């Protein structure tokens, strides 16, 4: 039996590469949002599975054709939604090889090349972020899972310090662990608390200032009331304002209490890589664990994130699935010891390719450029009467409102809807301090000053029409 790649299969690979290249080359000039909705897409794709199969090239061509107007061009330099990088082309190219290689990256013995590249990503990431080189690191799907894994490592360490083995005994009857978290934390750490069995509503929510930063005085008061060493969740990059908790003030107090500090740094932690911006995160290196996305500021293709723990042992104890024992901790540690997965794709390879391509200087320049562009966007918008920028520009996030009060909320929604419908640029929505906002996240690798000028023109043009009642 011939086991070589069939001609039809080889043609399908080439056609897929051609479709991918055409899509990326057209992304900059095309409108950003999908032209067709989910109902139409369901009609195209959710059909009966026929008894007779389809030729490989026909499958690829059909998918490319039918999906085209149902895709959001998130790789466009004009996509400013949520906080999502634009899938750097070099990372995409490496990701194509990852799929072709078909490696299950959970074992260093089975996939030594993958493990070596992923360990390099971990080493380089720690170096760029200014974190200790001997930290334990796991490559996960993103900051949501990174937060979950870090909270589970903290749970392991804090209970072990009280003589309780949570991996063997579970949580039933376990000692209490207080949890402190800022009132304006992202939803991901709250989800992590649920997944780890702490319960999101049992966490003590600490008051924050007008930028979403934890206020030290109420924090210290809450810390003093803790009867056991707490788990404290801090934030590097508030989702609306991009602000940072006062790490230098808070972390030493928690450590003096014997607690564990975890930092949700999905995008904001990357500022530590830029010398002129790193001071905004002063003291963050004193934490016990950190969550950071690679598919945000590094612009790696989805999915890619890192969980980092200062002490690797509780990370491995909480994650390893190699048996109910702690494996030997060697320099060549197993990938699956630091993540919740035994089977996974080689998700670190695209990040390896991007880091090799950009180098240290390129990564730093990317982050610095985006922060400068966010300042530019805020300045252009704030200069227009009736437009308010609600946040100081701490990083790459801009929170914008239009008009005042309840009428202003309706106007904000109308401006956003018009901008998104035109589709030349694509910011998204949010709420902040009781107001509806347009949230602008500058994080795509391809975004340049001309794109910011277009963004401002589109938003200001929509606001002028809304303000006149023309929309």
The poorly predicted ranges are none
Largest sheet: 7 strands, mixed
Assigned CATH superfamily of the largest domain: Type I PLP-dependent aspartate aminotransferase-like (Major domain)
> What is the helix content?
40-55%
**Shape designation:** globular
Structure class: alpha/beta
Number of strands: 11
Any overview of this molecule?
The strands form 2 sheets. The chain has a 7-stranded mixed sheet, sandwiched between helices. It has a 4-stranded antiparallel sheet with strand order 8-9-11-10. The termini are far apart. The radius of gyration is 24 Å and the shape is globular. The protein has 14 helices and 11 strands. The longest helix has 35 residues, at 348-382. It folds into 3 domains: 7-71; 96-352, 3-Layer(aba) Sandwich (Aspartate Aminotransferase, domain 2), CATH 3.40.640.10; 360-467, Aspartate Aminotransferase, domain 1 (Alpha-Beta Complex). Helix content is 43%, strand content 11%. It has 471 residues and is α/β, with parallel strands linked by helices.
């Amino acid at each position: 039996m011939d086991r070589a790649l069939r001609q039809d299969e080889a043609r399908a690979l080439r056609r897929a590469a051609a479709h991918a290249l055409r899509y990326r080359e057209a992304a900059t000039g095309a409108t950003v949002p999908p032209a067709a909705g989910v109902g139409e897409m369901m009609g195209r794709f959710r059909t009966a599975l026929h008894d007779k199969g389809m030729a490989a090239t026909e499958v690829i061509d059909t998918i490319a054709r039918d999906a085209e107007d149902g895709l959001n061009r998130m790789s466009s330099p004009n996509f400013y939604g949520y906080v999502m990088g634009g899938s750097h082309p070099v990372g995409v190219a490496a990701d194509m090889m990852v799929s072709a290689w078909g490696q299950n990256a959970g074992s260093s013995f089975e996939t030594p090349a993958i493990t070596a590249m992923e360990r390099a990503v971990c080493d380089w990431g720690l170096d760029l972020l200014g974190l200790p080189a001997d930290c334990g690191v796991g490559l996960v799907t993103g900051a949501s899972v990174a937060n979950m894994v870090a909270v589970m490592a903290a749970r392991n360490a804090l209970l072990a310090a009280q003589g309780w083995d949570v991996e063997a005994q579970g949580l039933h009857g376990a000692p209490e662990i207080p949890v402190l978290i800022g009132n304006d934390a992202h939803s991901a750490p709250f989800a992590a608390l649920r997944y780890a069995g702490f319960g999101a509503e049992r966490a003590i929510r600490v008051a924050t200032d007008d930028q979403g930063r934890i206020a030290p005085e109420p924090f210290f008061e809450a810390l003093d009331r803790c009867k056991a060493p707490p788990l404290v969740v801090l934030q590097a990059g508030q989702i609306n304002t991009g602000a940072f908790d006062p790490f230098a003030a808070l972390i030493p107090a928690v450590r003096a209490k014997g607690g564990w500090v975890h930092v949700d740094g999905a995008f904001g932690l990357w500022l530590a890589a830029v010398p002129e911006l790193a001071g905004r995160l002063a003291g963050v290196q004193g934490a016990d664990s950190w969550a950071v996305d690679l598919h945000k500021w590094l612009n790696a293709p989805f999915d890619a994130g890192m969980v980092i723990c200062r002490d690797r042992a509780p990370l491995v104890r909480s994650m390893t699935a190699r048996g109910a024992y702690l494996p030997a901790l060697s320099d060549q540690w197993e990938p699956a010891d630091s993540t919740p997965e035994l089977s996974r794709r080689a998700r670190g390879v695209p990040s390896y390719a991007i880091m090799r391509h950009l180098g240290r200087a390129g990564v730093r320049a990317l982050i610095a450029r985006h922060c400068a562009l966010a300042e530019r966007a805020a300045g252009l918008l704030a200069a227009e009467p009736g437009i308010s920028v609600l946040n100081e520009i701490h990083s790459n996030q801009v929170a914008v409102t239009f008009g005042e009060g309840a009428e202003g909320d309706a106007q904000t929604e109308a401006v956003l809807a018009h901008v998104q419908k035109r589709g030349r640029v694509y910011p998204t929505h949010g709420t902040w301090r009781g107001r509806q906002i347009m949230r602008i996240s500058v994080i795509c690798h391809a975004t340049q000053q001309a794109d910011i000028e277009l963004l401002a023109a589109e938003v200001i043009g929509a606001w002028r029409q809304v303000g006149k009642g023309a929309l």
